[in-house]
Amino acid sequence: MSKYLSKLKRILVLTPDAIGSTYFQRSLTVYLNYHGYITQNYHELANFTNILSDLVENLAINSNNIVARCSPYRSLDFDQTENYLKFCKHFFTNIYVIERCSFESALSYCNTHQPNKERPLNVYSKHQYLKNKNKTSYNITTNNFIESLKYFEDFYVWVDKYFPNHKKINYSDLVSDPDSLFKDEFNISSTKELYLKEYNKFNTLRIRNKDLNSYTASELLKFIELSDYIDFLVHRDLLVSKNKFPYKKITLSEKIKDIDNFTELLDVYNSYPSNHFKKVTKDDIINRIEQEYKLWTI
Questions:
Q1: Residues of the chain with pLDDT under 50
Q2: Is the pTM of this model over 0.90?
Q3: 29: domain CATH number?
Q4: Which of 58, 61, 144, 254 sits between 20 and 30 A of 126, alpha carbons compared?
Q5: CA distances to 127, 136, 252, 278 from 101, in Å
């Protein structure tokens, strides 16, 4: 067992949409339970209740480790928003933000929130992937893209104001090797392997109808066992029953292929005044596409 266990109990993810927070929560919840730390995922706290006293009472008597998320927009649902945020700041011992390229996040957000198009916020099945996938290429208007940039800028300003003592989790580390990331971050001593990266890659290929013939029977059995374990956690109310575990929604190469004015949007992004956004070059994009190709297809 980990000597760090006392600090594992209350884990909060601060997030807008489109930065990978759902995958972080769900995969971390599965990982901790698998390694012997009974952990309950509340997902979005505002979904549980919008009455602060009810939330405080429920979390205070929960003897399990807790993983949850808090967003600036859903926090407005609470009857005492300022007190809710103060409670989260002091109750949760480990507070995280997913560190991801803001340009890619803005593109994902625009893809999900295109006007007059209903799209899933995340992908949990082949059906939802096909629903999210564009049949034809499309444009993202400059105004909509700038609104999405403001959406993320407002989020980072909110984080700085209410949760200055947070820690960042790199999105690339999260998707490329979640087992190692969680093991190191939470000082887990167990040597058991969960194969979260391989499971995520398999499902990314599966929902895209890619060739799966290279997988051995032993590997497929591991994925079936992991799916069964996720169902077991749902049965024990440690994971939400609806949309249990997300898969890769859209890759960077898919965004470039589908968005006609991709280059124009990159120029808009790099011209946007913000202390929270890092500049992105076309070479950065090419390198990330190559990294994604190696991660998801090789």
A1: 1-6
A2: yes
A3: 3.40.50
A4: 144
A5: 27, 25, 11, 8
